[in-house]
Amino acid sequence: xxxxxxxxxxxxxxxxxxxxxxxxxFMLPLLQLVILSNAATFEVKNIKFGYLDNxxxxxxxxxxxxxxxxxxxxxxxxxxSKAIANSAMLKGEVDVLLQIPQYFQRVLQKEKNNNLGVTIxxxxxxxxxxxxxxxxxxxQRFNQNLKIDLLQISDQQIQPINIETIPxxxxxxxxNYKTFMVPGILVLLITMITLFLSGMNIVREKxxxxxxxxxxxxxxxxxxxxxxxxPFWVIGMGLLTVGLILAKVIFNVPMIGSLTLMxxxxxxxxxxxxxxxxxxSNFTETQQQAMFIAWFFTVIFILMSGLFTPIESMPKWxxxxxxxxxxxxxxxxxxxVMLKGSGFMDILPQLIKTAIYAFIMxxxxxxxxxxxx
Amino acid sequence: xxxxxxxxxxxxxxxVRDKRSLFILFGMPIAQIxxxxxxxxxxxxxxxxxxxxxxxxxTTEEIINKISASKYFSINQFIEKESDIETIFxxxxxxxxxxxxxxxxxxxxxxxxxxxxxxxxxxxxxTANTISNYVNAILIQYQKELNKDVIITYQIVPRTRMxxxxxxxxxxxxxxxxxTIILMLVSAMMTSISITREKELGTMEILLVSPLKPIQVxxxxxxxxxxxSIINAVVIVILSIFIFKMPVxxxxxxxxxxxxxxxxxxxxxxxxxxxxxxxxxxxMMISLMGLxxxxxLLSGFIFPISSMPLPLQxxxxxxxxxxxxxxxxxxxxxxxxxxFIWKETLILVGMxxxxxxxSVKKYKIRLE
Lengths: 373, 368
Fold this sequence. Notes:
The complex is a heterodimer. Chain A is an alpha/beta fold. Chain A has helices spanning 2-17, 21-36, 58-69, 82-91, 104-111, 125-150, 177-208, 210-215, 221-249, 259-283, 287-303, 316-322, 326-340, 348-368, and strands at residues 47-53, 73-78, 96-100, 113-121, 162-170. Chain A has a four-stranded mixed sheet, sandwiched between helices. Chain A is elongated. The mean pLDDT of chain A is 84. Chain B folds into two domains: 2-40 and 168-362, no CATH class; 47-146, abc type-2 transporter like domain (abc type-2 transporter like fold, 3-Layer(aba) Sandwich). Helices cover 67% and strands 10% of the residues of chain B. Chain B is built from 15 helices and five strands. Chain B is elongated, with a radius of gyration of 28 Å. At the A-B interface, helix 2, helix 4, strand 4, helix 6 and strand 5 of A face helix 2, helix 4, strand 4, helix 6 and strand 5 of B. Strand 4 (113-121) of chain A pairs parallel with strand 5 of chain B, so a sheet runs across the interface.
């Protein structure tokens, strides 16, 4: 026990004496949490909108006015010609283009129905889909107004059937993205810091040659590993604490569920990450190799965690891969407990899987650590 | 010059002899682009929903059939009472519940009006909103069928044309992004580590007392990585064309030039990182912790920049990846020439010059 305490002391001293690393370990993640959480939004707004009015009548102007009034669209210019509009589209100055044909009003009055050209830049397919919905909604509302303005009584014979839908957004009525993203980004930062630090730690001693010195001391394998990992575990829990405080104070993220449960889960989760880091450390010769591997897995873990894009939409084989992604479970648990107030029984499946994962990874790490070369 | 070539040779040997790093260097980008190209999508399909049907009559059955026939939804279960909603949401699998009111058919026939509640688990606002929109679209379609006989007057129908990506594939969005991230991080990380490594191991001192000029040392260090990154870029472009069927509307030559420019920008950033950090650990943490999330989040790779708050839109301008993503999307999907992207290109050139200038200023020929 005493030996472990000495190793822990040494590690802490090493961390706190490295003045270059301290801001990176503590400030960078929190700064990113505060700044980047604002960036992660799938909301589509400030859409760059342009139009081409070949009609110049009260109807066409009223229609453009409707787009102008909408908060989603930033109405740019009235393009004088199709060529200019196209080139603006190529330059990326406009994303949605409305073309009002000539004789628009006249045809509408005579035939009671008419077509409008809408061109949408669809490189971001999801955003294009949403933009299309907004355009359709505005035009539908415009149609309804037309009906009220121009409808004759004789038209109103049969009342159309109307199935009304009432959307109810539970747990997040205002569809605030920050409450969704802050817990997730906090998870990422805790994972990255603990994984990179633990992954680099032992391999660094190897590379510099100090590991050999430790190997010839009577320190046992398990003592050494516990002593090495404990400081990072503390750093991870510390980051969680500060992150949660920032989430509450700055973003006012609701914390419905039990804090104890969150801490309990995190304490096990960090063990998984540290186990992975140690395992990487044991299998590499240089810090460069260790970091490449750590980097490779973090990018995969991040992008396949369901944090930014939904897991349910991935193909089946990819969903199977996500089962092996610890970040996925952490993100799920954080969101469930914080935002929905899920209890111990609700997160039990994730908890069991994480615990098994921790057990296997640390087992492998201890097994693969050899005191001899 | 001969010395310089010798030095470059040494660097190449360093890299090529380290089989493990080499494997990672080439294997990982391929693995990542394959994985992400296929797996990442921000489309919504196969969402699990539950039904709470208080009527259980012909109309609700018809609507439920329509919903379950759509590729967006799969009906996970039928529940009996309102209090069950909370329980299933807390388990996390079911994302929405459709709640049909009592006597649905009767109300449709008698009052021509009936109500469905779409209760969504809005902890994920994007999914919640999309689910609600899709259900609405299905119901509007259904209403049209019901109202076939009613004449609707004054109808303006938008004819929407989706340009550059008519099938709305999310691969078109993500492949340029993944390519940018891989090039950016691999280049910046590799150079910053390989230079600080020499510092940390003490061999930098040997290089500094050699007759090689500092600039030659740096260029020699970076040169092999330019070469490796170009191979990476070529492999990624080939994969995206043949496997993901990404079109290259514009000129391949221009794409190649712009990619080389971006690689040099990233390498210059790597050099800058290495001049300000003393150990590999610091260099790595700066290039990984400092670059990874900002590049993913602020480059427009996943989240549209125009929707961000204004200060972040301003910050996004200093992310080189943002400009490169605009350039590749322009060349590959829109088919534009240099006259449309010269501004972005100039910005990248400017950044490169800035990074190199700053590193030269900060570069110490003496070790403390």
